[in-house]
Amino acid sequence: MPINARRFGDSFQLGSSISVVCEEGFIKTQGAETITCELDNGQVMWSGLIPKCEAPCGGHFTAPRGVILSPGWPGYYKDSLSCEWVIEAEPGRSIKITFDRFQTELNYDFLELHDGPNLLSPVIGSFNGTQVPQFLFSSGSQLYLLFNTDNSRSNSGFKIYYESKALFGSDNRIRKSV
Ligand SMILES: [Ca+2]
């Protein structure tokens, strides 16, 4: 029953519990990890709110790989968003971006990628509509993403995979010295 999540436990009997884990790219915005079926004033109820998993507006990633979803995914994103994501790989590594899905309002809703830790880092790509490259690499170990939408019309947004990769020519000495 929870969306964007995996459920562990199949029993909905009194006293039994289920736990809910959000799928990759989503975070829990409501509810507890585990809910128990219990009796409350003669009615069979869950002990807490039904967990809800949603794709957030922004985030900070340090895992070696992951998924970035536009907020609201798999539904449409909202108007007037400004979402920032930072991906941080280990020093001496680079970040590979793979566009799995991409659809924003043409000319108005932009995803901008910066080659570094923040907005001031050089832009390596600014995308809207459906035109995206298949892959993109950062030159260093950090990548900053900014998704700006204007005040009308939305679309399904994006699903992006990132993965930390060894920089060409780098070796362990470089990595350890940082
Ligand atoms: Ca728009």
UniProtKB/TrEMBL annotation:
Keyword Repeat attributed: yes
Domain Sushi as annotated: residue spans: 1-55
Pfam families: CUB, Sushi
Alphabetized PROSITE patterns for the sequence: CUB, SUSHI
Domain annotation CUB: ranges: 57-165
Keywords for this protein: Disulfide bond, Repeat, Sushi
Identification of the protein by name: Uncharacterized protein
